[in-house]
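User: L-seryl-tRNA(Sec) selenium transferase. Structure?
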Amino acid sequence: MTDPRRRIPRTDAVLADPRVAAAADVVGKARVKDVVLAAQQRARAGEIGPDDVVDAVVAALPRSAASLRPVLNATGVVLHTNLGRAPLSGAARDALVTAAGTTDVELDLATGGRGRRGAGAMAALAEAVPDAGAVHVANNGAAALILAATALAAGREIVIARGEMVEIGDGFRLPELLESTGARLREVGTTNRVRVADYADAVGPDTGMILKVHPSNFVVQGFTSSVPAGELTELGVPVVADIGSGLLAPHPLLPDEPDATTELRSGVPLVTASGDKLLGGPQAGLLLGEASLVNRLRRHPLARALRVDKLTLAALEATLRGPVPPVRAMLEADVDALRARGRTVAAAVGGEAVDCVAQVGGGGAPGVDLPSAGVALPVEYAEALRAGEDPVVGRVEHGRCVLDLRSVLPDDDERLVAAVRAVASGMTAKRHRCRPVTATTLRCHEEGDPPS
Ligand SMILES: *Cc1c(COP(=O)(O)O)cnc(C)c1O
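Assistant: Predicted structure:
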């Protein structure tokens, strides 16, 4: 009998398969070749038969030239930082794909002369916040803050309440961020309380600005007092309010969350916020306020280094002008509608429909519980679903894997069902025959069974 290894198809032959050739057009020939070599290696090691090489390659082909994968967020955390915060609306996705080519981001097509960069996005933002005399957009909320601190307080003092010296995540701390601009921090008040008089005592000739930071990821309860930014505008220095979440106007479901319009109406000259939190747009840092101040920041040399690209401008404008973005739809979804969806999904996948509690997350509305509903599955699903072909991230609660539907759009329910079913059939196969369905969902040999 001839050695079966001699029947392993040659690289050229595998690359000539139409499915493999099509993938090379999308992800590049080099990556496809790596996949082919790996499959041939497996065949040489006897893990797969020589006739299975092409199928193994097709199953393992990357679908995109980038490694980021689409993920279904069933965590119930609407703005999940590790999952990219706000998912963009269809309108915003279309806009950024259009802008990805050559586009008139800084050219006036009528005159052929230079136009204001991102004029459309700026106009949309100005219309959304009529109380702002001018607007500017930087790379993210932290960049907006850095720009303000550099332009207004480098080499001088920033007066800030001790209870607002927050860490925003992944070890980054606002005080350190602010000091990196060359400004010095002048802390006032205590962890739990601060008064207008504390600020007034600290303000002097060396004060560059007063900064109010919304503690967007924790709540201080009990014997507390803080000063609204609007009450600090008489102290003779610019007041900057970092509201964090990017709410442009008050939201009835989030009564304690600050919004740009209310801050500006109370007299605050400059508001900064993120674009990819409650606004539901792309990562961006919004600067909204008095025209003289905003234009000063806009013309500062650092503004050039913190400027946003055409993709962000396109997605931001479409978020502001287009239909309600996904984040708002998720936040406002009626709990009875979530329960009905939970029953449908549970019936389709054989889970149990449950009530649960969702969160805004991502540095917005800390301590706010959003009533929610979803599907409970055995706890093993949590890991298996993450490793699935179409990854789903749920949360483990009371020893079960809960898929919370508040952070899933209704249009994605069918996709969720399909993803769970695919994983479930893999788990059944493992239990009965121990046949790996895909390399990632199952690793039978880890369970002590020999691979088939
Ligand atoms: C999220 C947040 C930031 C940082 O904004 P990014 O857009 O993540 O850079 C700064 N301040 C507050 C209060 C925040 O909530």
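Confidence is low (pLDDT under 50) at residues 434-452. The radius of gyration is 27 Å.
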